[in-house]
Amino acid sequence: MEKIIDESIQGQSLNLDQKKENQRKLFIESYGCQMNFSDSEIVASILAKEGFNTTQNLEDADLVLVNTCSIRDKAEQTVRKRLQKYNAVKKINPGMKVGVLGCMAERLKSKFLEEEKIVDLVVGPDAYKDLPNLIEEVDAGRNAVNVILSKEETYGDISPVRLQSNGVSAFVSITRGCDNMCTFCVVPFTRGRERSRDPQSILQEIEELVNQNFKEITLLGQNVDSYLWYGGGLKKDFVKASDFQKATAVNFAKLLDMVAEKFPKIRLRFTTSNPQDMTLDVINIMAKHKNICKYIHLPIQSGSDRILKEMNRLHTRQEYFELINNIKKIIPECAISQDIITGFPTETEEDHQDTLSLMEYVKYEYGFMFAYSERPGTLAERKLEDDVPYDTKKRRLAEIIALQRSHSTYRHEGYVGKTIEILIEKESKKSDMHWSGRNTQNIVAVFPKGDYKVGDFVMVRIDECTSATLLGEAVEYSDNN
Ligand code: SAH
Ligand code: F3S
């Protein structure tokens, strides 16, 4: 897809030079996955060099950017509603320019300009470095679009501006794109082919975060276990790499080992793991390092072998059980969470029962559950009829959510009476007298503040629990501070 500059639409021009001096105001908001939130920090960094300061106030903004999600229809509708809100604000602030970033930008391309008149700028996930040029176009009164997907871009050279940060936990992206082609998923189309980031730039970014006193890093990718650095380029081209490149390549287990070794005080997390790419090496490295959190997000999508196959998930139910068994054998205290989709095309009641029985076996600590939403252009949309009635999808979804809730409670009850290490992240949403933080298993604990502060590692005695939270009391600092 070529870069398109639409010269036909004349907008109101901003006086660039004058505004650069004055510092223009950028309002940026993100929807969807953590990768989008992380990308917005890259965008804020690119635009900081152009004289943009971020503002929390939409009404004040010279430029509004919305980082969008296409994963389900509802996610797209949420963004469309936000655009209506911007429309209303533009009546008070007519100089305001509006840009869409991320997956919807990539999916809809210049169609966005026709469908949503408020939009001046459309930028796909690999084109953020072009933003200064694109904004110049917009300043000159032309609409601008760049949705070119890249073979190389990982933004490894950009040091993100941490937006709305608690100063404690940060995301560091390690791969971009996805080659898996799950048939329901729009991501391979909107984020392109998979490529990995130079480990040295990952270590450097983490070092900066450590120097700023961050305590927890989450390594991010659509499919982190597939990480492979061999000098740059697409994962699929690794077969063409030289013998030297192959011999010195860094895979995910090696990367985790390097990061955990170099930053022993940092709590390390990673997401997301596709079961088909998770190796025993990764599990062993997790067991080897105390500072790697004992938590794996391991989406299953469906418990039925037939549906897994239709989804192009490249493992069976049995192989998933073997993986779970290995995890529990090597790291008995490891927490596991899931993603599940109900009502994928052709899903029968029996398939649904298979999902419930799989959940009974694993008893996940947590889960993200969704009704299937057909996405334009995906393999499922092209090949399969979206034939499970809406009410059936919803009823099955309610059943898996109820079962998950009971499993979460069951898992949480296992902590009552124990004293566990929590990293304090923020004030509890429900009470300004309480802190909220997570344990290594990624479970949230809430407890009275005492003399502790955000960023402290504390030992918390758990007295009670709900399906969402552990409740207790901090008894002392942990020796990790
Ligand atoms: N590997 C990715 C997965 C991205 S999508 C990651 O890093 O998180 C997150 C979850 O959304 C998927 O695991 C799947 O359960 C759900 N999902 C994706 N496409 C969907 C669709 N078309 N309908 C409903 N849920 C979907
Ligand atoms: Fe989507 Fe499957 Fe990749 S869910 S992000 S295509 S692993």
Task: Describe the protein in words.
The protein is an alpha/beta fold. Helices cover 35% and strands 22% of the residues. The chain contains 16 helices and 22 strands. The protein has helices at 16-22, 34-48, 73-92, 102-108, 111-115, 131-139, 187-191, 199-211, 243-248, 252-262, 280-288, 305-310, 317-330, 349-362, 379-383, 390-413; strands at 4-6, 24-30, 52-54, 63-68, 97-101, 121-123, 143-146, 169-173, 175-176, 195-196, 216-220, 228-229, 250-251, 267-271, 295-297, 335-342, 366-371, 419-427, 434-438, 444-448, 457-465, 469-477. The strands form six sheets. A seven-stranded mixed sheet has the order 1-7-6-5-4-2-3, with helices on both faces. The chain has a five-stranded mixed beta barrel with strand order 18-19-20-22-21. It has a three-stranded parallel sheet with strand order 8-11-14, with helices on both faces. Strand 18 and strand 19 form a beta hairpin. Helix 10 runs parallel beside helix 11 (280-288). The chain is globular, with a radius of gyration of 23 Å. It starts with a strand and ends with a strand. Mean pLDDT is 94; it is low at 1-19. The site of S-adenosyl-L-homocysteine has 17 residues, from strand 16.
**Count of DSSP strands:** 22
Helical amount: 25-40%
Distance between the termini: 50 Å
How are the strands of the biggest sheet laid out side by side? 1-7-6-5-4-2-3
Inertia-based shape: globular
Quote the average pLDDT. 94
Low-confidence stretches: 1-19
Beta fraction of the residues? 15-25%
What oligomeric state do the depicted chains represent?
Answer: single chain
Total helical elements: 16
